[in-house]
Amino acid sequence: MLVRSWGSRGSISVSGKEYLKYGGETSCIEIQTSSGDLIILDAGSGIRKLGNRLMEDKPQVINIFFTHAHWDHLSGFPFFKPVHATFSKINVYGPEMTQDSVRNILSKAMKAPYFPVELEDINGDVHFREIVGKAIQIGSASVETIALNHTNEGVGYKITDNGKTFVFLTDNELTHEHEGGASLEEYIEFSRGVDLLFHDAEYTPEDYKHTKGWGHSVYIDTVNMAIEAGVKTLGLFHHNQDRTDEGVDKILKHSKEIIKEKNSPMNCIAVSSETEIKL
Q: What CATH number was assigned to the domain covering residues 2-278?
C-alpha cells in the first residue's frame, strides 16, 4: 500500500515563501492498494494536482472517500479533471450527514453564480454512496470508519491492505467530545498498533485557550494518543492556516522530544503536500 499526500493544510489553502516546506494545499490523500485500486481520502485543493496526473494515467475506477463536508475538504472536487472526463467511473463515498448529503452539498456549490458547470452536467460517470457504520471492500483493501469529534460530524478511516494498516483522523478533537463523536479510548483502540496514523495536530496549547470546541486537537494530545495506541509512525496533519514552516518545525521538534522522553519507538513526521510512504 502506497500512501501519498497531496495536501495537509487546514481551513483554507495558503501560499507564500513561508509555506514552501509543508505546502499550502488542503486535505487530500491518495492510496494505491496492492491490488492496484485507487482510493482518495478527501477532495481539498490538493486533489487538483492529483487529477492532472490521473488524466494521464486514466484509471478505470476512482474511489473518493470524504471525511466530512467542510469546504476545505471538498473545495477541489469541481477542479478535479476526471469528473469532467468520460474515461473512468468515480465512486464518491461520504458519511451520513445530519445537515445534508455530500451529493447535495456539492450540487449546491456547483451552481451559478458560484461555478460555471453544474454537478448534473459533468461528463464523468459519478456515483454517490453513503457509509453508515460498516466496512467496505475496495479490491484488496478494507475500509472501516469511526465517528470524528468535529463540528457538524464526520468520519475517520482505517484502511487495511495486505497486512498493513493506515488510519486517517483529520479534524478530530481528542479532549472534547462533540455530538455524535467517539471517546479518546475508542480512538486509541481504532489506532491500536497501526503502521501509519495521520491525525489532526492543528493547535498549540496557547491556541487551544480560545479554540477549545472547534473540532481540532493540540499536537501534544495527538502525540500522547498515538504513543498509547502503539502507532508505528505518526503523521501530524491539518496544519493551521497561519502556521509557517518554522512553526510546524517547532511542533515536530517538540513532538519528537515527547516521544523520546516516554521511551517510545514511534516515528513522527509532519505531513507535507509531497509526503509519500510505502507500507
A: 3.60.15.10
